Amino acid sequence: MEKRVAIVTHVCELAGLATAHALARDGMTVVCHDATFKDAAARRDFETAQPGLVARAEQEPEALVQGVIRDFAHVDVLYSNDIFPAQFVPVEETSLDQFRATLEGLLVMPFGLCRALAPHMKARRAGNIILFTSATPLSPYPFSSAYCAARAGAANLAVSLSRELAPHNIQINAILSQFLHSELYYPRDLFENNAAVKGYLHAHVPAQRLGEQTELAELVAFLASGKCNFVNGQQIPFTGAWPGMPKWPATFK
Fold first, then answer.
1. Helix residue spans in the chain (DSSP H)
2. I need a labelling partner for 19 at 20 to 30 A (CA). Which of 26, 31, 205, 217 fits?
3. Are 112 and 53 in contact (CB under 8 A)?
4. In what order do the strands lie in the sheet with 127-134?
5. Which fold has domain 5-187+210-246?
6. How many other CB atoms sit within 10 Å of the CB of residue 31?
């Protein structure tokens, strides 16, 4: 049986590494992108530290996809693990350059990858695409209009593309994550050791904890498995049941 090939972007961020290992465990060749991999030494260090994973230098979506197809003959799975710092800034202080940069990181990158992969997957009549985005558009925070707009765009990109690509047996879903442990968005020390922040977490997230990267990786592995392609065009929350409501005041009981 032909070994399946997966691309994982921004592998050193969020649950990228956990996901790469989960896909490799499931028998896939996992080809990894990261911003640091422009440097040859960084690629060598990564492959030494992570045996079995492959690091690629390409940064642009088209170049990455075409390079992997050239060297591995096909691509079966894409996990687009998109990141950009969430900035809390009044709209009048958000420059158009900041807005464009946010869109570039969170929406243009996954669009470019899907655009590059679509003809290849159509020709093979097979493919599984998973876009990582945020659940913030379900309950948008104030002062984060650029971030919320870009994340909402990626979520709806998955739905629109699923309706276009499902007739070609291509599955695409979006994972809407919130309160996933990561040093970029939800550092464990802050959310578990700061009393005020921990209180907020317990009040608004019914699971009363951060999500683990290994948990998200297993969700990606299921969606990438090809075992249930009828799950298509979905925006799947990974949120610990957020947005939850604070408990009623005792006087209301």
1. 16-25, 40-49, 61-72, 96-103, 109-124, 145-165, 188-193, 195-204, 213-224
2. 205
3. no
4. 53-55, 29-32, 5-8, 77-81, 127-134, 170-177, 235-238
5. Rossmann fold (3.40.50)
6. 24
Q: What is the largest CA-CA distance in the chain?
A: 67
CA 213 from chain centre, in angstroms, equals 11
Q: What is the pLDDT of residues 94-125, one digit of tens each?
A: 999 999 999 999 999 999 999 999 999 999 99
CA dist 189 and 34 (Å) reads 25
Domain ranges of the chain: 5-187+210-246
Tokens of 141: 């925070």
The Cα–Cα gap between 210 and 178 comes to 9
pLDDT one-digit tens code per residue, 40-54: 999 999 999 999 999
Q: 3-state SS of the chain: helix, strand, coil percent to 5?
A: 50, 15, 35
Q: What amino acid is encoded at 87 in this protein?
A: Q
